[in-house]
Write a structure and sequence with these properties.
With 232 residues, the protein is an alpha/beta fold. It has a domain at 2-154 and 179-186: TIM Barrel, CATH 3.20.20. It has eight helices and seven strands; from the N terminus they run E-E-H-E-H-E-H-E-H-H-E-H-E-H-H. A hairpin with a 7-residue loop joins strand 1 (2-5) and strand 2. Helix 1 packs parallel to helix 2 (74-86), helix 2 (74-86) packs parallel to helix 3 (101-110) and helix 3 (101-110) packs parallel to helix 5. The protein is globular and about 45 Å long. The relative contact order is 0.13.
């Protein structure tokens, strides 16, 4: 639980990291959050009571459910979102969109906005990066469009994978169709999570992959801004 989040939605936010994720992203910076059996067991009442202590502090922001993959625990998310909504607290879900839409639609409806991580627009590249396709993420985005749910897109720019002009243009072309997309956050691949892979004894393939340069990121952002997208 992080009580002063400034990069996970608008304003100052309380960020709740839920354990467990079905993806195996090659650049994951929270590999310690993958195993659903790790972590600390809490009820939605316990978590809400703790968050309530910070209500005045986060009044200009809200609460973001993150992970791991928070929607892997839809019952807990639903209960907590209902409590937060009843008390007028703004909510966001930071999700990869991997969960089937039918199983998480009610959680999406309860949240004020989504931070949707589009891993790759090409299904084959998405599978290479995460071990799964992007079909559910696309369905989730289309559902948000149909309900006018505000969405901030997150996309990690990785040299040798998503740092590719053709892929970036296809992604920008696709996202430009959606009125619900308020912002695109292009996140440069970083090396800060490497030590976790080492400590956990996991196989990591990106030790020799550099972070993108400032010039790389400027070019990537221009591709999206040229399509009329608000990009950060």
């Amino acid at each position: 639980m992080e009580s002063f989040g400034t990069v996970d939605g608008p304003g100052i936010r309380f960020v709740l990291f839920l354990q467990g994720c079905p993806l195996n992203c090659i650049y994951c910076h929270n590999p310690d959050a993958l195993n659903p059996d790790d972590g600390e067991l809490k009820s939605s009442d316990e978590v809400f009571e703790y968050i309530s202590r910070f209500k005045s502090f986060i009044k200009s922001g809200g609460v973001t459910l993150s992970g791991g993959e928070p929607l892997r625990q839809p019952d807990f998310c639903r209960e907590l979102l209902q409590k937060l909504k009843a008390h007028g607290i703004h909510t966001a879900i930071d999700t990869s969109g991997i969960m089937p839409l039918d199983s998480v639609k009610d959680c999406i409806d309860l949240a004020d906005m989504l931070l949707l991580d589009i891993k790759a627009i090409s299904p084959e590249l998405c599978r290479k990066i995460t071990g799964a396709g992007n079909e559910n993420a696309i369905k989730t985005l289309r559902y948000c469009e149909s309900t006018s749910k505000p969405v901030w897109i997150r996309h990690v720019v990785v040299p040798g994978y998503t740092l590719d002009e053709s892929e970036l243009k296809k992604t920008a072309d696709f996202l430009a169709r959606f009125k619900c997309v308020e912002r695109v956050e292009l996140l440069p691949f970083h090396k800060m999570g490497e030590y976790k892979w080492k400590e956990l004894g996991l196989s990591y393939t990106l030790y020799d992959t550099p972070s993108p340069t400032e010039e790389d990121m400027a070019k990537a952002r221009k591709i999206f801004s040229d399509k009329g997208l608000c990009v950060r």
